[in-house]
Amino acid sequence: MMNKRMNKPILNVSGLTIDFGGIRALDHLDFDVQVTEIVALIGPNGAGKTTLFNCLTGIYRPTDGEILLACPKTGQQTRLNGLKPNKITERGMARTFQNIRLFSRMTVLENVMIGRHCRTHSLILGAIFRNRKTREEEQETIHKSYEILEKVGLAGQVNELAGNLSYGAQRRLEIGRALATEPFLLLLDEPAAGMNPQETAVLVALIRQIRDEGHAILLIEHDMKLVMTLSDRVVVMDYGKKIAQGTPDQIRGNRDVIKAYLGEDVG
Amino acid sequence: MITAKELTPINKKIICKALKRSLLISLWFVFLTFPIMVIKVNPIERTVSWRWGNIAYVAIGSFVISLLAKAWLVRKERAAAAKTAACPTRASIFHNILQRPGCRYPLAALLLGVALAFPHLFSTYQANIMTTALMYIVLGLGLNIVVGVAGLLDLGYVAFYAIGAYSYALLNLHFHLGFWAALPIGGLLAALFGVLLGFPVLRLRGDYLAIVTLGFGEIIRLILENWNAFSKGPSGISNIPRPGFFGLEMSLDQAMIYMYYLMIGLVLLAIFVVNRLQHSRLGRAWLALREDEIACQAMGIDKTRIKLTAFALGAFWAGLIGVIFAAKTTFVNPASFTFMESAIILAIVVLGGMGSIIGVICGALILILLPEYLRALSEYRMLAFGAILVAMMIFKPEGLIAGVRRTYCFQGRKSTAALQDDE
Ligand SMILES: Nc1ncnc2c1ncn2[C@@H]1O[C@H](COP(=O)(O)OP(=O)(O)OP(=O)(O)O)[C@@H](O)[C@H]1O
Ligand SMILES: [Mg+2]
Questions:
Q1: How far apart (Å, rounded) are the C-alpha atoms in residues B357 and B10?
Q2: Do A51 and A171 fall within a single domain?
Q3: B250-260: per-residue pLDDT in tens?
Q4: Is the pLDDT of residue B421 over 50?
Q5: Closest ligand 1 atom to the C-alpha of A240?
Q6: Nearest ligand, CA of residue A42?
Q7: φ, ψ (nearest 5 deg) of residue A11
């Protein structure tokens, strides 16, 4: 908990609660994410991890609690509750989806170009008359998107339809598409799910590289080896509550965590 | 199709199943068509004749057709399985031809030449039919923005067409506004109504959206039909002037030909604008909206805004063509704007190929010109429509000419867009 990089958090969640009818999927959740930190979010199936992401990104509206996002450059803090998903992405937080949600009948490059949408401005008249500003913007969009594809290792498949990519490549494309929105905080929902060990190794390197370039990362993952090697800090959830938080080593020995995963009292 | 060598046990099973299914289908058809095909009532002589022979035709016909359809589907599935995901985006022969710069421009020039010479080669009557087809091309291109690109199923498109037509008719009646002034006003008014319709349906998708837009189309028609003081009701508005050409007096024939060239110009404009829109930041956002609404929003796209622009830009073209329609027929009444019109325009988009400009053009030409030249079959028009659409959904759901995504090649740091434009 006593992280060395302990300055102002870029994401601060306090008392976050959401009810679906009678089910309390998130129950007074508190946690934060610091600049250029990799935080892993773990917990058994149905613990509410994806629900938390949906609340953070504005897809669900929380019943109670507060989500604050602070831009590390300007230090400006905004309350995200009630903002639309696109406004939240504009503020600098982007995500990937557990069940891949690519634009499957668009090309790989176009998928990433969609991510640039909120950083570009041309409108109807620009599209029709294709004036110099629009042309330059379009070129910039293409180039930045291509650079991102090089980074995630998909430069060879720019013109492929996204739906035709292999599973691992689709997950990397989702990361690339999120990166195109220029986030400072990236939320990854089970990025390694369904990947083989080689693909996972490539992914780990990619996530490290993204962090080293100055992004903070909050990731949900069931692959414990990945979580333990990659993350600076781990938050453990069960039944919508935070049950533990700490460095990977602290979590490994935590009795509550073992109990939540094994479902019984041990030792 | 299936040779003896291929008759492995699995194949045998498939064939057995297909035979059984076809048999069931043919029995069902015999049952359904029994009252029309077999029983013949002669009300004058008060006799009933039974034409049992017809059963055989229906049974054998439907059996063979369903078997052929099944065989075709199986073959297609196998081909798709053999190809798998390894194959990159496969463009149709049509697109391959168009992609070659050596073919594209001469072909376009040839088409344009034929189009320009058309009224001089054929009668004015033919030119008149062609003008109608051209109008439907533009209508199709407009609806294509909403349905084909943005994926918003709009069944009330004819309402915008009506708004365009009535805005010219009424503005001319009350304020003596000319055609050229009314043209942009009709388009903009329709676009405004597009936004007005867009607001309440922002949260709706798929079937729900279809039903509400269908209702909107009917509301506009009912208002025009019943609000006598405003729109003169079912009797409509007549004596609408044809478009002028610097105050020149024109005979009826000349006016028709003038109209034809006007439409050629408008079609070219629509192709140009829609093509540019599709290949822009906005066009990509529409496509993303069609593909996945949640991901689209999560990627920072303002869903509300791009939905409204899609409705507005789609409606705009319907408004323009509405003004043209009023000027062409010199008379408007609500009967011209029934759901049937929406259905035809939608059929053009679906048949031609959702999101494909060339597809929509072909769809409009086929669906408007064929019935004109096959007058003899006009009674079966609706039947043929239905059959064509069902067959398309089964065999070629992407339409006659599917839209092809633009490709880019990167050499070093520079990118060049290949397949620059659709047309
Ligand atoms: N829209 C919703 N309506 C009702 N209940 C929901 C909704 N979304 C999530 N839930 C419930 O919230 C709980 C948490 O689900 P969530 O998907 O967040 O789990 P998770 O931790 O992501 O699990 P997994 O590891 O399997 O992905 C589940 O019991 C789920 O049924
Ligand atoms: Mg989940």
A1: 42
A2: no
A3: 788 888 889 99
A4: no
A5: 14
A6: 1
A7: -125, 130
